[in-house]
Amino acid sequence: MNRRLIVGLWRHFALTLALNVRSGRAFVYGYLVPMLFLFAFGGIFRADNPPLLHEFGQLLTITILGGACFGLPTALVAERERGVWRRYRLLPVPTLALVVVTLAARLVIVASAAALQCVVARLVYGTPWPLHLGAALVAFAAVSGSFLGLGLLIAAIAEDVPTVQALGQALFLPMILIGGVGVPLVALPSWAQRLSGFMPGRYAVDVLQRAMSEQRGLEGAGFSFVALLVIGASAGLIGAKLFRWDNASRAGRRARLLALAGLGAWVAVGALAMRTGQLEPVAAHADYASITDEDVDRLRFDDLPGDNELVTRLAPPFPNGKPPARVAEIAASLKTWAPARTGDVVDDVHALLCVAALADIGADPQEAEIGRMIFDELQARYRHALLRQVLVWIVLHPDSATAVTAAPELDLRRGRPSEQMVQERAGLYAKKYLGRLTGRISAP
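Request: output the structure for the sequence above.
Response:
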């Protein structure tokens, strides 16, 4: 590639950015809509601790959707209607190079909108920065690339700007309503959760949210990345194949068939997800509310190890309610510890039980004091009746929540035990705490 071509493409990139900054439509889709969703989510989830952290994957997905599936095709079609791309065709520049530069400019616009959203959320609501910044950038690039491919396909088959709006809404609204983007998967009925597996929004939220708040980062997100790649690449290749320089050339039957082939990638991904068990409904653990006193009465507490034995040690209550300095520091860190701040009470209680289990398995010098601190923390966070129901649920359904197998941020750094071992110890602590709450264990 010669120097003059590089300079020309750079000027095209800068011009594309400048035109989008001046465009009212670009401002609305690129910046105003993400801010509106941010404040809407903030009004609903601002009481979470930390605020909005566990909804930010959804917010970023909405931002990318707005910029890629509305902003990009609207700009391309509007320029095509004005004859801009017909003039570009006279340039001695490969088509692919101009399209790639245009996509790169849109990526910068979407990235700036996402960065602004993060900064405003931090300043207004105190939302933490992503837990894994590098993973967040990788996830953002994957989601943006996939949705930009969809935007390119929309631009190729849309005859005018109103058609762009209609096609964009046809993609946007289902993902917002039943695709796990606007409404969390856990709040959707089972049929909608399964249907969301045929939409890229679900996989976008998954990879972004893992990078934002999951301790293991992108571990386990392989299928979501493959889904985004297949959907985005198929749409992008077809969009590039059907790219039109002149609005006089109409999208014919062949174009519509190829567009349907692009949507066929959605069906293929959903079918594979269903076949491989990726679409099992996400439970909200709502059944814990059905726990009754009879369920407690059926439990045995005489098979638990003693408080001073090698397994599940538990210190007596702290004098004046004040734990040792290091244990107090761990307690303070729990206030913002993401695994225990998911918004799902069963997952949050289980994560706290895992902290006691990790200290016990790792033979922490203060394992007994940490076990007592977790008991105090649970009682401080939850009403007695609610905590009792949740602990019974965990005892009866030990695999209902995923175990936390490492917590170096809490200064628990001794090894990484298996999930099965952590689940077992967490269940023992759940029963110990439950016995004290119900009076079935008379120890202090």
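The chain has two domains: 3-275, 286-438.
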